Amino acid sequence: MYAEKFSQIKHPLQNRFCVEHAVHVHMNWFSSAHQTLPATTTVTIQEVNPWDIALCVTGTLISCENALVIAVLFYTPALRAPMFILIGSLAVADLLAGVGLILNFVFTYLIDSSMEFVTLLSVGLLISAFSASVLNILAITVDRYLSLYNALTYHTERTVTFTYMMVIFIWVSCLTLGLLPVLGWNCLKDESKCSICRPVTKNNAVVLAVTFLLVFALMMQLYLQICKIAFRHAQQIAVQHQFVAISTTKGVSTLSAILCAFGACWLPFAMYSIVADSSYPVIYTYATVLPATCCSVINPVIYAFRNPDIQKSLWMACCGCVPSSLSLRPRTSSDV
């Protein structure tokens, strides 16, 4: 009789342990080291983190948007200018970032996330994709600056060659960054060295964050020069002072919106990566990562869907006609 009573008490405790352990065992690469529990063979309930759901939904939206951009550029032969090459490269980077977020969710909840290969594959893809996204935005900024600074020689074969060289350099660099964790630059064997994004080490995370801050500073400098050139060109060709004020004000507003959106998305995560490590609460990591991923949601709107040529292609593909409200003048990268 005593054995039966003990068994009745023991079984609820066992079930409670299985439930509580299952809540913690499915942690993804954002998890901090002190929150990881030893794995067991019995898991009965799998609780999905709402932050992971938000990241997966964001990744799905990113993938759909950028797949549409890539399809439009691929099936429209007229969109082969240097600007569209860079927009296409940015769309590919953001598409891979979206796929990486989806795979991260799948690896966390549908596949055994304790496998080192799965963890390294997920983090490597995300590092490569988001690094390529940031560098492609910088390349688009450089292209806009050159189209104004060298307006007479911009539409030449040399510009196309330079654009392809930039794209190749970006992807080689970013793929190399993504391979570093796989090649041994990770903290899987020493959890104390982990950054907020396991298995990236704290030192590597700081290097990536500082590099981003340098890229952001360079973008600000280039956009400042673009504004100066745009003001000077507008004053030279304008007949009415009102036209100068309207056109230049609109251009400055557009550039300000681009910089503000980019900075608001990435600066919190970059700064937090510098000051924090794996001992910090994981919720802070999620709260800074989610806005950074949203930058890839905004990119197609800023750099692709606002472009009149891409808008025409979308209208032709969807409706078979082009609205009269769209300008007949093709847009170039010098339009700020």
TrEMBL record:
One matching Pfam family: 7tm_1
SUPFAM superfamilies: Family A G protein-coupled receptor-like
UniProt-annotated location(s): Cell membrane
Chief place of localization: membrane
Domain G-protein coupled receptors family 1 profile stretches: 65-303
GO molecular function: G protein-coupled receptor activity
Membrane topology according to the record: Multi-pass membrane protein
PROSITE patterns given in the database record: G_PROTEIN_RECEP_F1_1, G_PROTEIN_RECEP_F1_2
Transmembrane segments: 51-76, 83-111, 117-142, 162-185, 205-231, 252-271, 283-305
GO CC field: plasma membrane
Keywords: Cell membrane, G-protein coupled receptor, Glycoprotein, Lipoprotein, Membrane, Palmitate, Phosphoprotein, Receptor, Transducer, Transmembrane, Transmembrane helix
Family listed: Belongs to the G-protein coupled receptor 1 family.
Protein name per Swiss-Prot or TrEMBL: G protein-coupled receptor 185 b
Organism: Kryptolebias marmoratus (Mangrove killifish)
